[in-house]
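Private note to self, pasted from the team thread so I don't lose it. Backbone tokens:
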């Protein structure tokens, strides 16, 4: 299993509004909550009884001095989904009920995955679509969560659109390992 964290950076001189990103991922991306292996109940309860949150640790991309969290791109009143709510939901659920089971995990995974629209294509790929309300110029923002793959992701094709661009920006990202093999 491999993981991929992505950022988007606005290298222009003006903010970008309604940024829409399409990622063309290999079929090995885990895009449905039923495909994620649920942790054992004892593991989940042990982690939840601590101050740590395994959803944040495994999936969410924290803010750093180089970039901001996905939720920070929100223009007030535009986006309903905020991935940082998951931590609060899981923590509050754990305080109310003494156990956390695979059903709870599946519900939390559905909430987490709702930040993306996943479309399976006829050629075995998966298109992940995500929107950023506003990306300030000179700023970088993390995607809502890390992508997990059952295998490797060597090449990632993307398409980016926003209100300010007359045409989409398209390109590809290659893993460091695939670049070294050339």
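Design output:
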């Amino acid at each position: 299993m491999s993981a991929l964290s992505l950022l988007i950076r606005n290298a222009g001189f003006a903010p970008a509004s309604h940024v829409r990103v399409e990622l063309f991922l290999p079929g090995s991306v885990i895009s449905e909550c039923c495909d994620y292996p649920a942790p054992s109940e004892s593991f989940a309860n042990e982690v939840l009884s601590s101050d740590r949150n395994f959803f944040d640790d495994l999936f969410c991309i924290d803010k750093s001095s180089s970039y901001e969290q996905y939720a920070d791109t929100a223009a007030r009143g535009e986006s309903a989904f905020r991935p940082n709510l998951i931590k609060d939901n899981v923590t509050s659920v754990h305080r109310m009920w003494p156990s956390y089971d695979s059903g709870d995990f599946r519900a939390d995974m559905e909430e987490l995955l709702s930040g993306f629209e996943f479309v399976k294509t006829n050629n075995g790929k998966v298109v992940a679509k995500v929107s950023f309300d506003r990306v300030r110029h000179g700023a970088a923002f993390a995607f809502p969560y890390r992508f997990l793959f059952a295998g490797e992701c060597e090449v990632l094709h993307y398409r980016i659109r926003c209100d300010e661009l007359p045409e989409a920006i398209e390109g590809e990202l290659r893993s460091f390992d695939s670049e070294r093999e050339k």
